[in-house]
Design a protein that fits this description.
Blueprint lengths: L1 H16 L4 E4 L2 E3 L4 E4 L2 E4 L14 E5 L2 E3 L4 E4 L2 E4 L6 E3 L2 E3 L4 E4 L2 E4 L10 E4 L2 E4 L3 E4 L2 E4 L4 E4 L2 E4 L3 E4 L2 E4 L7 E4 L2 E4 L4 E3 L2 E3 L7 E4 L2 E4 L3 E3 L2 E3 L5 E3 L2 E3 L4 E4 L3 E4 L2 E4 L2 E4 L3 E4 L2 E4 L4 E4 L2 E4 L3 E4 L2 E4 L3 E3 L3 E3 L4 E4 L2 E4 L5 E4 L2 E4 L3 E4 L3 E4 L3 E4 L2 E4 L3 E3 L2 E3 L4 E4 L8 E4 L7 E3 L6 E3 L4 E3 L5 E3 L6 E2 L2 E2 L6 E3 L2 E3 L8 E3 L4 E3 L4 E4 L2 E4 L5 H4 L3 E2 H7 L2 E6 L2 H8 L8 E4 L5 E8 L2 E6 L4 H7 L4
Parallel strand pairs: 67-69, 68-71
Antiparallel strand pairs: 1-2, 1-5, 3-4, 5-6, 7-8, 9-10, 11-12, 13-14, 15-16, 17-18, 19-20, 21-22, 23-24, 25-26, 27-28, 29-30, 31-32, 33-34, 35-36, 37-38, 39-40, 41-42, 43-44, 45-46, 47-48, 49-50, 51-52, 53-54, 55-56, 57-58, 59-60, 61-62, 63-64, 65-66, 69-70, 70-71
Length: 585
């Protein structure tokens, strides 16, 4: 116990020796933050008092018990030093030049100096030393050792002493389980340290920390407040029940149906918040400005609550848009469904229209051009009426707007725009190129690959030439570039299939396959050919043909009489179905 008191006394003595510099007013010390000095008398700054009127320079700095001038001297850990020789600042207990040295966490280092061997050159007091071989403690250089350390300016041996904060404690008075809690040692098996606050004789197995406070194991720590063991949840420093409450921004506990509106807490099941104003409202209510309204019977128009379907205008007030309209601040009655405002007049938009600043015109024979009414047959260019006999309108381009130009010839009907405006030309014989040049039209040449062809009779499918194909009503099947007859064939992704379609000639005699096989004797069945279908589609072939169907009118084949023998021509994929229902004789 005596040894502990001795180390506490040493610690207090060092603290007082390194106390900061204070102001002195004549012979009285004072804090410049809370007081001021006026003509040798200390005054409090409370009540907004900030300065003195007609004062003399009675206020000086004091370093421990010694007054000094801050311009010519400075205070380093309770000792006054002269600023002569360029000395400007303190580093621990040493005065140094800021131009040549710098202070790094209480260690004085030379600026810009590099050490040629591993490590850096440092300054300890007035001596330069090698950090790889020596160490500095309280401005004194010592040989570096594994067990030698510095504790707030005190050199100690780590094998015999321990440094806690700024105090050195002998290990003989401690045991192996002792560690530091702030500036004091403690037994971590018998005591608890909470952010440098020591709680002696508190078993860590039963106690823990809540910030700087001690709490029993199993208790709840919310912020910096200890709560007894519970199933609640933290909200700031307090607890709440999640089943009936909720936490707002980890600050305030509210009920599940409560919410904040500005600075007011309200029940959202009964009321609603409109622009930080609490109003009555349920699920059928909406906000209109800072007020609420029932949307089943009311509407909101320009921040005002009106009857359902009505509108509101600052000059006209509330009105029914089905019967009235607000025309430039005047409430006007409608004479029909499509009557609306044209400036301050009500017009029928089925017949008339509004142009510019209230000019009424008939839509059947007039039009609006740049705010002016013109005849319907007249042309409008960039808001101006043009004379069709002598003028043309050059359309808008990427670089120019619509512009009126003069015709170069009376029969010119188009304009080729350019940066200078445009040029008129006859579109029957001339073309306007993208480079703004007017050139004579060339006769159109049709090429299939490198071969000329007539596009009215021949067919070109991806540079494949089919002579007379269009005359035979053929088309291209892409991407295979094959020609086919769509009446008897179908193109599916470049593949041709026979179209299952009953020719008009045989359709009137169509029968179902089951009935056909029961009442007839088949002599032969064979797969239908393109040639046979082509002949039937042109109205040729046997006169006795008839179409045979299966369920849902799906075509199976076409039958006909041949030398008193009945033959059935079936489509691809129908062979098995035909043999299943029909027996050939």
């Amino acid at each position: 116990m005596i040894l502990l008191l001795t180390f506490v006394a040493v610690f207090l003595n060092r603290y007082l020796a390194s106390s900061d510099s204070l102001y002195v007013c004549k012979d009285t010390k004072y804090d410049i933050i809370t007081h001021t000095c006026c003509n040798g008398t200390v005054h409090s700054r409370s009540g907004g008092m900030e300065d003195c009127c007609n004062t003399s320079s009675d206020s000086l700095y004091v370093c421990k018990d010694t007054k000094y001038d801050i311009i010519t001297h400075t205070c380093c850990n309770g000792t006054v030093h002269s600023r002569s020789g360029g000395m400007e600042d303190c580093c621990n207990n040493v005065l140094y030049k800021t131009e040549t040295h710098e202070c790094d966490n209480g260690v004085l280092r030379a600026k810009g100096q590099q050490y040629t061997t591993p490590g850096n050159n440092l300054v300890c007091g007035d001596e330069l030393y090698d950090t790889s071989e020596k160490m500095c403690c309280n401005s004194t250089v010592y040989p570096k050792s594994v067990q030698r350390r510095c504790c707030n300016g005190v050199l100690f041996n780590t094998s015999t002493h321990k440094c806690c904060g700024s105090n050195v404690w002998p290990k003989s008075a401690l045991n192996e389980t002792v560690t530091c809690c702030g500036s004091y040692p403690y037994n971590q098996e018998k005591s608890v340290c909470c952010e440098n606050v020591l709680y002696n004789n508190k078993n860590p197995a039963y106690y823990g920390c809540c910030k700087t406070k001690l709490m029993a194991r199993g208790d709840m720590c919310c912020g910096s407040k200890v709560h007894k063991q519970s199933n609640l949840t933290c909200c700031g420093n307090e607890t709440f029940d999640q089943q009936v409450q909720w936490c707002e921004e980890n600050k305030e506990i509210l009920g599940l149906s409560e919410i904040r509106c500005g600075n007011i807490i309200y029940n959202r099941e009964e009321k609603m918040c409109c622009e930080e104003t609490v109003n009555p409202g349920t699920k059928d209510f909406l906000c209109c400005g800072s007020k609420s309204y029932n949307r089943t019977v009311r509407d909101c128009s320009q921040g005002n609550i009106v009857k359902k379907g009505n509108l509101w205008h600052p000059s006209c007030g509330e009105y029914n848009p089905n019967t009235h309209d607000c025309c430039q601040g005047r409430l006007m009655k409608k004479n029909g469904t499509h009557w609306y405002c044209c400036n301050r007049t009500m017009i029928n938009y089925d017949v008339d229209n509004c142009c510019g600043a209230g000019k009424i015109f008939n839509k059947r024979n007039q039009r609006c051009c740049g705010g002016n009414v013109i005849a319907f047959e007249d042309k409008c260019c960039n808001g101006q009426r043009i004379d069709s006999k002598t003028e043309l309108c050059c359309g808008r381009t990427r670089y120019t707007d619509e512009e009126i130009i003069q015709k170069e010839e009376p029969f010119h009907d188009q304009c080729c725009p350019n940066m200078a405006g445009g040029r008129s030309y006859n579109s029957v014989k001339f073309d306007c190129l993208p480079n703004d040049r007017v050139v004579k039209k060339q006769p159109r040449r049709h090429l299939c690959g490198r071969k000329k062809y007539n596009d009215t009779t021949d067919l070109c499918c991806k540079n494949r030439f089919f002579k007379g194909a269009i005359r035979r009503n053929m088309k291209c099947c892409l991407p295979s570039a094959r020609a086919y007859n769509p009446k008897i064939q179908a193109c599916r992704l470049g593949k041709l299939k026979i179209r299952k379609q009953c020719p008009t000639k045989c359709e009137t005699h169509g029968r179902m396959l089951r009935e056909f096989c029961q009442n007839n004797h088949l002599a032969k069945t064979k797969k239908i050919s393109k040639k046979f279908l082509r002949r039937l589609s042109k109205g040729r072939g046997p006169k006795s043909c008839q179409c045979v169907y299966r369920k849902r009118k799906r075509l199976v084949g076409i039958s006909f009489q041949r030398k008193n023998r009945l033959v059935l021509n079936y489509f691809p994929g129908q062979k098995r179905f035909v043999k299943k229902h029909c027996t050939m004789h």
